[in-house]
Target: Metallophosphoesterase, calcineurin superfamily
Amino acid sequence: MHISDTTEGIYKYIDKVIQEINPQYIVHTGDIVDNIKLETNADYLYLHQKGLSQFQDVIKKYRGNIYYALGNHDDRESVKNILNGGIIVGKELITIEGKVFSMSHKYEMLQKKADYYLYGHSFDPCSYEKNGEIFLNGLMKINIIVLSTGRIYELGYPVGVNYERKMEKRSVGL
Model:
């Protein structure tokens, strides 16, 4: 299961998805508390840590492996201390059940020579396949990869998540 750029407002939804499908692995490609923009305001660290604690409440019941490719709004030390049990990945490629994964918050930072490329951060590029390589944008959809068959399922995020991410233009009334 691949997710990215999650906000506190969708943690209950993520919990339901995890309970329903019981994934063997979870990959989060950054901005775990995306409604708190640490990159632009470091004074929000306490709020970020509070959000991480809420995310920990969701995943503490989960027994599989969790990988984190940290984003521009994540604090490495806070993630390491609060989300214990997860694996923080850097630029290395990760092999899971014989498939090679490149994971990064930003598409531009992905390493080459993988079967699957998982990223978030921006709406561009959308998920696509090219020359047998699969690129999945976790910002747009929750990606469920069935490793035994290669089949990919996409689940939509709840309505309003882009507003919470501050990635949606607001309408102006008169």
